[in-house]
Design brief:
Blueprint lengths: L14 H7 L4 H43 L1 H15 L1
Helix pairs in contact: 2-3
Amino acid sequence: MKAGAPKSSTPPTTTDQRKRQISSDTLTLVGLGVAAIVVVWLVFSVLKKVIGLLFLAALVVAGFVLWQNPALLQGLIVWIQNVMN
């Protein structure tokens, strides 16, 4: 311990003591399960929106690049025509 650090008044707990401290009643476990489902749902709904916004931003950037580079746009048009035939 460092000098001046406060001393702990509780002795270190053993594994058995820690196991007894963790609540394992049904209501707590159901509550934790519901909370986990809500968190997963929120994460995936936010990720879905972020991915959609990134896709939209990619389309805007691609449109801007094609607008600023007519040679690239012409090459893309020729490639699409070749694929269609």
